[in-house]
Amino acid sequence: MRSRILFLGNGDLVRTLMEAVALDKKLEIIGLITSDKEILIGKSTQPIVNVHYRDLKNFCNKNQIRYEIVSHLESNKYLTEIISILSPDIVFVAGWHRILPDNLLSKSYFYGFHASLLPRNAGWAPLVWALLNGEKKTGVSLFKIDSGVDTGPLIDQVEFPIDENTTIHDLVNESIKASAILLKRNIGEISRGIEKLTPQDLSKRTEGTRRFPHDGEIDFCASVQYIDRFIRAQTRPYFGSYTNIDQKRIRIFKSKIAEPLCELNKGEYITPGSLKIHNSKYFFKCADGWLELLDFEIEEIQLK
Q1: Residue ranges in the chain whose pLDDT is less than 50
Q2: Is the full-model pTM beyond 0.85?
Q3: 217-300: which CATH topology?
């Protein structure tokens, strides 16, 4: 008898996971429950853009997989109803933005993919925080979900490096590949109920806080190395880091640390955050150097 698998998640990640096991004759993918283009998180009354949204309806129809969208106007009650109807043996959760209620967790076996080496960087935006904190490596953890936030026992992990050029785009792609490896490597034991579970050492837990678009504003009083990393941590597919000057918002997606520029310094003190245009190139002064902008957009805004 084949194990009935339900996926709960978003975007390229959940599609890659479904593709990873679609040809396994011991498994039957019975459905995908995904989010809408905009989602409500927590107690917020304003929806946020789901940057990882992908329309997977055609993919699911082609592969005879039931496709359901839980919009930001619907509650966990509706989610529970769908899962009760589908009655899966296993639910894999990847890129889901809501905490699953206890009454739902009791209905099936839930396993989660989290883009960090748990117990480090649990919670919100783990890849962004790994970059912001200057960490040298991160990864993806496969774990059994319990009632806590990323606290369940670990099954397996895959790690990958972070260097001085790594962007959030790179880490997202690496995390998708790592998640597929984890699923293929462990799906057999999970489907037979013999996976090895290792409790997390929660004394070593670190947790990232939720990030909002306004958290992308740059503080040019920081070091040039940190600001360059700050920009790499929030580039596409996210909204980019930014600064405001003269009714304009400069949204920055790529930068590089510039060589010392005598033409810009001229032996005088220059306030961090000052913008200089030199040879048709844009430079910002940081606390201890200059940052050259390589990919940016200028928007007209109304500053308060």
Answers
A1: none
A2: yes
A3: Methionyl-tRNA Fmet Formyltransferase; Chain A, domain 2 (3.10.25)
